[in-house]
Amino acid sequence: MEITLDQLLASRDGRSAMQRELMEAHPGLTLVCLTVVMPGKVKRNFHSLIVAQAALTELINAFDGTTALLRARDLPTGFEAYLLTTVDRVEAKRVACHIEDTHPLGRLFDLDVLNTDGTPLSRTALGYAARRCLVCEREARHCMRLHSHSQDEIHAKIEQMIDRYVR
Fold first, then answer.
1. Phi first, then psi: what are they for 155, rounded to 5°?
2. What is this structure's pTM?
3. What domains are there in the chain, each with its CATH number?
């Protein structure tokens, strides 16, 4: 099912509201937010659900014993999960970067660790490399800005990654 720009923007607003609500209700805990990288107008499909399940499993395992709350939402605009942990923000971001960088589908995980003001901690501020393009390995931000790759090319790469993972 394709989503509209208005639906996408509303989902971002909803995610931001959920983040604020969780951080206000649980001060002193670290909030880790999971979304699935799925470019295009279809955010929820068979492939995105495989990625979501893999990401959620990794998140649960990585923060085992330190999780205070876990909330997941499977929405037409994409899968979201919110994990509150007793691990400090910097260490939680290190764990998130490790998952993104080492899991076979990690490039399709977006794991944000939020500062108390709601802004995400930056990978580069902790010495990690910026996220890479799925197709060509340049900095993802660069290719996104220039629209360097077609949606078909990006989706073919995503399908290839997922097919390799499930085999």
1. -65, -35
2. 0.93
3. 5-130 (3.30.70.1150)
Which pLDDT belongs to residue 153?
94
**What number of helices (H) and strands (E) belong to the chain?**
5, 4
Burial 96-113 (b: 16+ CB within 10 A, else e): bbebbeebebbbbbbbbb
Q: Which residues pair with 32 in a beta bridge?
A: 83, 113
Distance from C-alpha of 146 to C-alpha of 83, rounded to nearest angstrom: 33
Per-residue tokens: 101? 């960088």
Q: What H or E segment, with its residue span, contains residue 19?
A: helix 5-25
Beta bridge partners of residue 82, listed in sequence order = 33, 71
Query: Can you read off the two tokens belonging to residue 147?
Result: 């629209």
Question: Can you tell me the mean pLDDT for 24-44?
Answer: 95
DSSP 3-state of 75: strand
Tens digits of residue pLDDT in 76-134: 999 999 999 999 999 999 999 999 999 999 999 999 999 999 999 999 999 999 999 99
**Rounded CA Rg of the chain:** 16
Q: What is the pLDDT of residue 135?
A: 92
Closest to 1 in 3D by CA, of 35, 46, 31, 36:
46
Q: Which tokens belong to 13? A: 């607003």
